[in-house]
Structures are given as C-alpha cells and as structure tokens.
Amino acid sequence: MNFNISILCETCESQTNCRLGMSNREIQPLRFRCKSCGSPIDITMTPDFENVGMDIQVSGAKRIHAEKFEAEVNFVDLHLDFPVSFGEYVMGLTPFMQASMRIGHEAMQSHAFRVNYLNDVYSHGKEIKTIFTLYSNNKTDLFKEKVLAFLGSNMECETQLDQNRALYHAIERSFLPFAEPERNMDAVNLFTAELIEMEKNHKDALDDFFEEIISNGFLKNVQTDCLEIYPRIIDIELMLRPALFLDFDLAYEGNQVPYRVSAHEFTDVKDLYKDISEIINRALVLIAGINNIKKRGSHNLFLTGAGVPSNLHKFADYPLGKKLDYIDNCWYPIDGGVIDNHLRNSVAHYKAEYDEISQEVTYFPRREGMKQDRPENIFFLDFSRKILLSFRELHRLNHLTKCLFVYYYLRTLGEKGTPVDI
Ligand SMILES: [Zn+2]
After folding, report:
1. Distance 157 CA to ligand 1 centre (A)
2. Which CA distances in Å does 358 have to 380, 382, 394?
C-alpha cells in the first residue's frame, strides 16, 4: 500500500510530492533532503493495522493539499525495505512494484521474511544488547539468567564452555536476517578442522599461541570488540534493509544508477564502517598466527623478506593494507572486496564529503598535500552495502574467536563438554 502526500519545506517553501510505501513495521521513520535547499525532512508513518489506517507525522515541512502530482514539482519515492529510484513520478510504478520487477516473486518473499524478522530483532534490541554487555563484563549469573530467558531454553549454562555456546546461540538467533548460513557453517567447519589438524601436527606451537593470546588478553579483547558491533547493527537495521535487498538483485552489481536509502545518512554510520574495518584488522592477527603455525611451526614465524614483522606482536601494529602482504598463501579466504582501504582511510581522516540530496559520497583516498583533486565516488546505498558485507566478515571472524575459546576451554582447561562441543 502507498500514500501520496504533498509537503512544503519549512526552510525554502519548495513543494515536494512524496509517495510513501508502507512497510510491515510498527513505526516507520523516513528521512530525505529537500531537493531545493538540502534541509532534512522527516516523515514518520505509524500504521493502525486493525483499522487499516495510517498516522503520518511530518517534521521540517508542512503538509498541503495537492490535487495531483505535477511533473515539474520535486518528487520522492520512499520505502524502508527497498532501494528506491530517484526518478520521476510514474503512477503505479511504486517502489514495491519496481523491486518485484527486479528480483521476482520468490526472492521478494525471502526478503520479506528477513525484514519482518528485523522488526522482531528491533523490538528485542535492548534485551540482546544487555546479554552482550553482561557476557563481556563477566557478570556470569545475570548473563545466564538473561540469555536462557531470551533463548527460551534450559540448556546447560554452568561452565565457560556452556556460556560461550549460549552466547553464540543468541547471536545466531538475533542476527539471522544478516547471516549467510552456508558460508558461516563452512567457516566454522574450517576453523574446527584446522584446530584439530594443528593439535595433531603442531601441538607445542598451538599451546604457545594460546599461551600468548590468552595471557595478554588479546583473544578476549577481539571477542569483546566484535560483541560491541552487533548492537550498533541493530541500531541501523533500517538503513541495512535496502542493502539486504541487493543480495537478490543480481543485476545491480556495478550498476551506477543511484538508488535512495530512505532512512539514516552517511554521517550516522561512517564511524561504524571505520570501526568494523579496525576490528577485522585486529582479527587478522589470529589468522596470521594460525597461518604461521601451519606453514612454519610457530605463530611468530613469518615468511622471510624485507619489512617482515619479527613476531606476531609486531605484526599486530601493521596497518590493515600492509597486513595482507605478510599472510602468505592464507588458509582462510579473506573476502578482499570487504577491505576497502582507500574508503576506510578517507572516512577515518575526514577526507569524505556527503551530498545529502543525491546521497553521493565523494572521498579523497590519495595523499595530495593540500589539494583534493582526485576524488572517488560511492553512493550511500553502496556504502551501506559495504557495511553489511564487512559486518558479515566480522561475524565470521567472531566465530573464529568462538572456536578458539572452545578449544581452549576443552583442551587447555579441561572443561567437560557436552557432545555438541566435542
Ligand atoms: Zn527546502
């Protein structure tokens, strides 16, 4: 269902005609910028599902009556669940229709399942965040109580091993809409197989590796850093809906046609992208350590050559772009497309500008002194897609920390596992 409304910008008094596509969400906050002056305009729709009505609140503009949508008047299509074209108003060609035409009925059903699930995740957001905080702060008794209530389970939750498992059950349940279940399963199988193989062939080296990453707190810190990202993903679930849609829109890739994201803006999320990249950067230390054990029998032994780190501790300080050069023939397939060093550096160093009206990000990745004349561009939709893909990589690497902890609790501390761990 769609609602057509017209508004006058409070700042410049320009008229905009808006077609509001209805999502299946309790409250639907939409945001766009006035095409004439760039001022933010927020429209919040609150459906009354029982009476099939809709409460529409506008801020930054006032509603006016218009008989019909004239071609020369500013126009926006808005929908939370899909990328929406910036084009002219065409009657009947609603965001939902356009989306269906792009991906087909079956994929629309899958997308609908995921965004409906997100409504549920959002409504449990506070509960999920509390579980992560309690786990990270070692508040064991409260963690057990809250996580079991959330899971509706009476699973074992006494040992560290059990609590680790309960935590990851909660993560899997909460973040299902973002997950790629097969790739995650493949990654976990790979981590487990590598640990078994290293225990068989390099037991002493593996023990040394654990001794270092446990005693200096590195493994726990990486896990805690990962856990801090998940709640921030819940906070921007609205922005990620169009990015999730692109999982099904195979024709989109490389298509430089701008599409609108109807909630949030670049400035709301640029730090999140930077932070996810930074945590992936740290998790690469674990990948490199395992690579060194497998290839050379010690986590500290890198391939020899110029500029090579003398040990894993030194490697941890290398910048992201450089780290990949020193992991030779890596056992773990790092998704190279996820690590966009140019974009990450530009975002981190305030060398990115955002046009709120066109939703285009212009960034300056090169060292050019005081000049900035070799820009690169990315649309906000593509940027939000990068956040989604880098979050998925972080999620997989978080499973590596899980598997390492399972090994440590079982094999080093000798905790008794349930059959599912062994
Ligand atoms: Zn305006």
Report:
1. 56
2. 9, 13, 30
Predicted local confidence at residue 68, as pLDDT: 92
CA 9 to ligand 1 centroid distance, Å: 5
Distance 259 CA to ligand 1 centre (A): 21
> What pLDDT shows up at residue 146?
97
Separation of CA 61 and ligand 1 centre (Å): 8
User: Quick check: 65 pLDDT over 90?
Assistant: yes
Q: Quote the ligand 1 centre to 20 CA distance (angstroms).
A: 19
Judged on CB neighbours under 10 Å (0-12, 13-18, 19+), 124 is: middle
- 233's torsion region: left (phi>0), alpha (psi -120 to 50) or beta? alpha
User: pLDDT band at residue 370, thresholds of 50, 70 and 90?
Assistant: low
Sign of CA dihedral 85, 78, 180, 397: positive
Report how far ligand 1's centroid is from the alpha carbon of 18 (Å): 14
Measure 60 CA to ligand 1 centroid, in angstroms: 9
Q: Cβ-count burial of 123 within 10 angstroms (0-12 exposed, 13-18 middle, 19+ buried)? A: exposed
**Ligand 1 mean position to 47 CA, how many Å?**
27
Between the CA of 363 and the centroid of ligand 1 the distance, in Å, is: 26
Confidence tier at 347 by pLDDT (50, 70, 90):
confident
Minimum mean pLDDT range among 191-200, 222-231, 360-369: 360-369
349 C-alpha vs ligand 1 centroid, how far in Å?
30
Residue 422 has pLDDT above 50, yes or no: no
Per-position b or e across 162-201, b if 16+ CB within 10 A of its CB = bbbbbbbbbbeebbebbbeeeeeeebbebbeebbeebeee
Contact 328, 295 (CB under 8 A): yes
The whole-model pTM stands at 0.94
Residue 147 tokens, joined: 């996580």
pLDDT value of position 117 = 96
How many Cβ atoms sit within 10 Å of the Cβ of residue 384? 26
